[in-house]
Amino acid sequence: MSDSIELSEMHWLLAIVQNIDVGVVVLDREYRVDVWNTFMENRSGRLPEEARKKSFFELFPEVDEKWFRRKVENVATLGTPSFTIWEQRPYLLRFKNYQPITGLEDFMYQNTTLFPLKGLDGRIQQICLIIYDVTDVATNRRQLQAANRELQRLSSTDRLTGLFNRGHWEEMLRQDYARHRRYGTNTALIMFDIDHFKKINDTYGHQAGDSVIQQTADIIRQAMRDSDIAGRYGGEEFVVLLPDTDQQGAMTLAERLRQTVEAHEVRHEAHSIRFTISLGVADLSLPTNGYAQLIEWADSALYASKSGGRNQVTLYRH
């Protein structure tokens, strides 16, 4: 009677293994396949008789053999399971993703479990590999992360120019000022606006004015370093925050910006538009009572450039 029950249980277990919607592979200690369920057959395109007693590494050459052997040997030595998750390793076996809804990736994201199987003598003679298809979860998570990144980008950038908006670059200045107070680092700020911008709008229209602003932003991006932070102050006014930069470095960049803009031509419809900018430069080499004072100094230097005839760079001095 007990033999009959054991055979019946074995039959049930085999049916479960074959029909469960996860990959089940049992490997002997030489990494040859002993069990290969329907999931594995369908995803790999190999029948069980084709896979059985074949080397796991021959069947799946994409597997990092050294890493996988180390993982399996730890399971066999310690007698405890081991896991991988898709966030750390997107897949173990490169199966195609056939799900049309989540078809953004051409492979199946996988979580895996490795656990030891003991023989009748109590020794670990085989290792079972379970493969879970988590493509839906992974794709949804990645889409959510991408959406959050895009929302963060939109919340910190100016829509017309793609430069940082005032809230974001001012926060960057606040952080840089805190670093200056702690470590004595220098920081410079360039502030400038487009000369006679209202006249450009009145003469050529607001779309032309938008083109002038956008192309000015492009010039800034091309001139600045990776560590610099460029933003729109409002209207036709811009700022460039220069960490770890002294007066001379800031003045050099400001003059390069001025010359590049002066030589630039904006083509809008049938019109050729030329324009200039006035710039003010300030840095933290002078004693300050807060990061906002650097903005005030740069703004004051900008006003001096405009009062002095425009199309020039002025350094703030006491």
UniProtKB/TrEMBL annotation:
Cofactor(s) the record lists: Mg(2+)
Catalytic reaction(s) noted: 2 GTP = 3',3'-c-di-GMP + 2 diphosphate
EC id: 2.7.7.65
GO terms of molecular function: diguanylate cyclase activity; kinase activity
Residues making up the signal peptide according to the UniProt record: none
Protein name stated in the entry: diguanylate cyclase
Location, primary (coarse class): membrane
